[in-house]
Amino acid sequence: MSTAHISADAGDFAPDVLMPGDPYRARNMAAQLLDDARVVSDVRGIQAYTGTHAGRPLSVMASGMGSPSATIYATELVREFGVRRIVRVGTAGGITSRVGLRDVVVATAAHTDSAMTASRIPGVHFSHTPSFAMAARAVAADTAAARDGRVHAGAVFTSDHFYLDRPDLNTALAAHGTLAIEMESAALYAVAAAEDAEALTVVTISDHLLTREELTSDDRAQSFQDALEVALAALAD
């Protein structure tokens, strides 16, 4: 059953997977959430964990950074290991005054300029959308962040280029309702569509391109609780 990137056996993964980008963040999530957590895969420094949360099976595995890495792991999880739902829990850069540092964004769409989408269905501008049911539960979740008005639903932009400075593009995207920029959601949504699975992205605003504010690495590690509560609500059907 093992693949080139996942060293697990049949039944090792739960149907639901939380997927941060950072392997250390995945380890911390597993330690916080999972009862009887066990390592089910350890290839290329990407460990995967399975246990139970609130009496239900749950797995946690990192995606690495960027669309190619997320596509590989999401495809293999769904196609080879029976995973049905994946929630990306990561970070994003805010590009509009509608969101602030540490706010949570539920990505109801993911725009992208990635060539990966252009090659998936040539000649078509593919629309990247999440599971409606999961997004609806996430947006409706009664969490402390939601009560404070810090949970937002809207589109994100998935970019392949982390350091490229494109202020005009950011302005145009924000003017069309885009809330943040990140690097994996469009790929994850495309995999879910192609493999008949469900996916959702819930991200924390870790830096802001308008205000130039940003969280430190330690702050990022400590600022996931709000997004994590929203992500778990999305899986609580």
From TrEMBL:
SUPFAM superfamilies to which the protein is assigned, alphabetical = Purine and uridine phosphorylases
**A GO-annotated cellular component:** cytosol
Domain Nucleoside phosphorylase: residue ranges: 17-234
So what EC number does this one have? 2.4.2.3
Q: Which domain of life is it from?
A: Bacteria
What GO biological process term is on the record, naming one? purine nucleoside catabolic process
UniProt enzyme class: transferase
Describe the reaction catalysed, as an equation.
uridine + phosphate = alpha-D-ribose 1-phosphate + uracil
Q: Which UniProt keywords apply?
A: Glycosyltransferase, Transferase
**GO function terms (MF aspect):** purine-nucleoside phosphorylase activity; uridine phosphorylase activity
Task: Return the Pfam families for the record.
Answer: PNP_UDP_1
Q: Please identify the protein, giving its name as recorded.
A: Uridine phosphorylase
Originating organism: Paraoerskovia marina
